[in-house]
Amino acid sequence: MRPLKVFAWAKDHHGCGNYRMGLPVWALNRAGHDALAFSVLNVDLPSDLDVLVGQIVAGQTQTEFWQSQARRADRSFAMVYEIDDDVWNLDMTNPSHRAFAGDVGEQVRANIEVADAVTVTTDYLAERIRPINPNVFVTPNCFDASLLTHERPRAEKLTVGWAGGSSHQHDFLAVAKDLHAFFKRNPQVDTHFIGVNHGDKIGRPGSRFSPWRSNLVEYMHSVDFDLGIAPLAYHAFNRSKSDLKFLEYSSLGIPVVASDFGPYSESIIHGVTGLKVKHPHEWARHLRALSNDSAMRDELGRNAKSWAAIRTIQANVWRWEDAYYATLGLPTGDGGASQSADAAQSSAAAESADAAQSSAAAESADAAQPALV
């Protein structure tokens, strides 16, 4: 298969921009392609471009450019729309709700319609998109293999933690009462939030807090949890979400307690790779069980890391390659059959020196676009 020339526009330099654009572009370059992530959509496109990728293209200026490129009579490159959220079902508490209301939501739909293909994170989101554009490819969120050999820092006290963005306010409100009950009865357990501090919602306004770091490796290296929590409210928007929190925690060997809903229902094997909460009182029960049993924490953490090994970007870059080749009408590869989890893990140490570059390409992305982390 010949190398591809790919231009990818990242809508931000936060979680979505890095995971969905910066990291795949980095991996595509390592695989021998000529790929670039950039911050301005209406750039001068090279004549030998193969694929133009646009992440949640919306807004008047961006939409005008996207639509004009789609109408070009001389266009020889494929246009791929990247979206990782159901922007038409945002909860009212989500900061992006107002940004995607009305005309913007319609712009997203119109821009998906004229694309040659769409990439999404989950099968459920793919089903949401296919009525708009039937040519959809699922490219799941992945992480850099170097994290599999990273020794995470350890806090002085047993720590329950969470990392993520402001879109999860509704999720925390849904479980705040139950988490508050656990921490009230277990004051010896510490809490650490990264990205947004939800400590006040669970009776811990003095929780340790670390700001978001745009470089994915630096961000993941700041995680020092012994236990990770992943609350997800029962809402239509969350059905399309990916299992990213579980994936992040698992890559570091951190056991997770997560809502038995959406992506976590499918990804987590209860009692093997994590614990799932079906009923509200189980938050306290599961956190108490893991807090009191270090052997159980270690076992679930090891199992989760073994599961995560199949989701490295190194072992999955073929998914992006196949999506782009198929959209161009070119033969695809062997579906990554030669990429095993063992191979990905064994090469992780050698690649760790390069890993810090994996998200740098998207760091200057357009801050005017609404963030959906």
Automatic annotation (TrEMBL):
Q: Keyword Transferase: yes or no?
A: yes
Asked if the keyword Translocase belongs to this entry, the reply reads: no
Q: Which UniProt keywords apply?
A: Transferase
Q: List, alphabetically, the InterPro entries matched.
A: Glyco_trans_1
Ranges of Low complexity composition bias in the record: 337-373
Annotated segments matching region Disordered: 336-373
**Domain Glycosyl transferase family, first and last residues per copy:** 245-307
Q: Which Gene3D superfamilies match?
A: Glycogen Phosphorylase B
What protein am I looking at? Answer: Glycosyltransferase family 4 protein
Organism this protein belongs to: Jatrophihabitans telluris
